[in-house]
Amino acid sequence: MVEKEIKKSIDSATIDMLEKASSDGVSTAFSRAAAMKPCPIGAEGSCCSNCAMGPCRVPLPRGREETLEDKQKRKGVCGVTAETIAARNFTRMIAAGTASHSDHGREVTKMFLAVAKGEAPGYEIKDEQKLLQLALDFGIKIGDRSNNEIAVDIGQTLSDEFGKQEGELLFLKRAPLKRQELWRKQGVTPRGIDREVVEAMHRTHMGTDQDYHSLLRHGVRTALADGWGGSMIATELQDILFGTPSPVASEINLGVLKKDEVNIIIHGHEPYLAEIIAVVAQDPEIIDYAKSKGAKGINLAGMCCTANEVLMRHGVPIAGNFLQQELAIVTGVLEAVVVDVQCIMQGLADIANCYHTKVITTDRRAHMQGATHMEFDEHKGAQSAKAILCAAIDNFPNRGTNVRIPKEKTDLIAGFSHETINYLLGGMFRASYRPLNDNIINGRIRGVAGVVGCNNPRVTHDMQLDMVKELIKNDVLVLQTGCMAMASAKAGLMVPEAAAKYAGAGLASVCEAVGIPPVLHVGACIDNSRLLMAATAMVKDGGLGDDLSDLPVVGAAPEWMSEKALAIGQYFVASGVFTVFGVNWPTIGSKEVTKYLFEDFEEMYGGTWAFEPDPIKAAHLMIAQIDKKRKALGIDKTRERILYDMEMRRELEAV
Known about the structure:
The protein has 655 residues and is α/β, with parallel strands linked by helices. The protein has four domains: 2-70, no CATH class; 82-242, Substrate Binding Domain Of Dnak, Chain:A, Domain 2, CATH 1.20.1270.30; 248-398, Rossmann fold (3-Layer(aba) Sandwich), CATH 3.40.50.2030; 427-633, Rossmann fold, CATH 3.40.50.2030. The chain contains 28 helices and 16 strands. The strands form four sheets. The chain has a six-stranded parallel β-sheet, with helices on both faces. Strands 13-12-11-14-15-16 form a six-stranded parallel β-sheet, with helices on both faces. Strand 14, helix 25 (563-574) and strand 15 (578-581) form a beta-alpha-beta unit. The longest helix is centred in the N-terminal third of the chain and has 35 residues, at 82-116. The chain is globular and about 70 Å long.
């Protein structure tokens, strides 16, 4: 029994709660995944259900090579080929992921405008510097205007990006000039965010675009509308509203729950709900109300990407990542899990029925049968937050005796935004990525890897740690967002002391000099745009080429499960970054489409896809790609520091 559970996760708190769930007779994502075998035809992208003549299944032959006769027979009722089916499915997944991130960005923009107009009491503009920088970027008049007046113009300008029909997205100008020209040459420059998503759905409709090259080209365009559009808008405006993250210490894992306090978990992706709850939860009146119910106080914790948002800005501890959401309820001490959108398992409602936990949905777009719906109104933020908190507090007396809180909790430091990294490397007056570039050039840091994405019960939970440890051991600095960041934090990789314990000598020396961990927490999954900005800053500081594709920078999503992950991966590939995914690959059913993505894309975009489910092997694919880029830059040989004496300096000056 124990061996079987260990295979499900490398996190001991997760294993503990899985054992409790089993003894309590409770179904979880882990047990459902074991019982529900994935469809092999769907997993390889060989099933089309886009019209009522199907579903049409065109799988590869099993156990032998595909023949020409096989290929001719692999067609749907309308004559659609396996290549078109795979490309349609892939592009539709990108469209769904882009729509999710961008709808998040749209809601943040609406919230930003409401705050700017004074229509959302309890919220205010917190990062004036970033506000003014955006105004300069967009050519918006500053003069003697108030921050709110400037913010209205910025909000309206960015709101227009969603419905724009022609031209180019504004944030594309942040990319290196060479990259912008490449996008124009390939015909993938996004016009408006919504336009690209709608066109992706139209192209993939039965009988429309039936050339996989054309379909995948538009998939690139749609993904770029996410990374350099919706996601970047969300991150920038969230920073202005709630503050640009800076390093903050906290704790992570299910052990952050408390036996004698009202435990409330905020779960989802929209930060403005979590922000106001974090503030109102500290109200003495609310705390006294909790005490009147027999609790010692209120313990707020995060789950998934909302957790990353309130962690970075308030130090709120994290209870766990995606696959731990059900297990938090299994502890028996959770009064409420407050959710908004994305990555919310419907199984939460069923598990909550086995304990006393309330599942509270708060977003008009995301209802759940069996949950309590308390719609959050940003125009009455404090009032809405107070009602939600009181509902959780009222549930405290209903807690039973079947409780068990895992002991595991780990220290972490989060909040390494692009701006913070810039400051830490160069200081207040010389903020720059120059020290990072110099240490890559001299070989102390081999390269940089972004390891991001979800958890997936089809593989061992948190298995990405093997990849991350292998990378930092080989002097690769790792930047992380989302659930992958949480996995590393639980393993103790996000404290400065981890450098001496886990990193190679070169990376460790840099981390110790700057005082940073070898694995940096950069934010939520929407914040992958921070990685784009960091890579762009590396190009602009010089010495590592003139485009993103020149950098010794790679990406990975070893435990991906969400369509958002495919959109993220595609915009990184299209930005020039080698990106490897684990678990499975959704175009394996077409050799032509897979070759196009894995090989031809490199020639077209300078970045390419790879698939490798083994985390150690995937890490070495990434290291090999980093070394390939280092060799192309002529920095593949380690360079020792030379301390120049006066005579050597005079010789330099003479030259």
